Amino acid sequence: MAPRDEREQLRTRLLGRAPRCAAVADLARDLVLERGAGGKVDLAMVEGMDALGQSLTLAVTTPLGGDVFNTDFGFDGLNALSDETTPMLVRERVRVGLVSLLRKEARVSRVVDVKLVDQRLEPPGTGAARRLEVRVVFETVTGDRLAMSTGPGGARTANG
Fold this sequence. Notes:
Layout (H helix, E strand, L loop, with lengths): L2 H13 L1 E3 L1 E3 L5 E3 L1 E3 L5 E3 L1 E3 L1 H12 L16 H7 L3 H18 L3 E11 L13 E9 L4 E7 L2 E6 L1
Antiparallel strand pairs: 1-6, 2-3, 4-5, 7-8, 8-9, 9-10
Helix pairs in contact: 3-4
């Protein structure tokens, strides 16, 4: 077996495999079906880095405790956007929520950087002042570096 294939198998084993989800609305997701050999319909799957990226995207767009089967799953920073009135406290709660989410994830070995880009301390008079874009860089247990970005377009991950 080629070294590249072995590395991909190790990545898949360490980072996991999951059914593929596709966005069907702003925050809604649905499972994806695919037609395989002989016309058989089955769940489409993601694995390795894609599985981790999808899992983190789902976690960031799910309120903490929003999954009744896993109340520890989700992102507490969503509450900050509605609970806090001071922009500085919103920023810090979002930052802490992201770091906490990543620390709970066994496939993440360390958080490298968290950057928040917003309208800073301007009053929330316009919709633009209520936007918060976040970029988090972290390393996985396989030694790979990923960047996760969130903003008006939703959450997405990419090789760091």
